[in-house]
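Sample entry copied in:
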Amino acid sequence: MKQHHNRIVMIHVKDRKRNQGPNVSFGEGETPIKETDADDAAK
């Protein structure tokens, strides 16, 4: 993402429960999402 940040206009992310569980609202599932700094992604 850092390499092509100027071409990325939208990112679609999903979250889900473990063991092929259902998709759930972002932040309510168990997908390990690495915290990022938006400023770093824009560099």
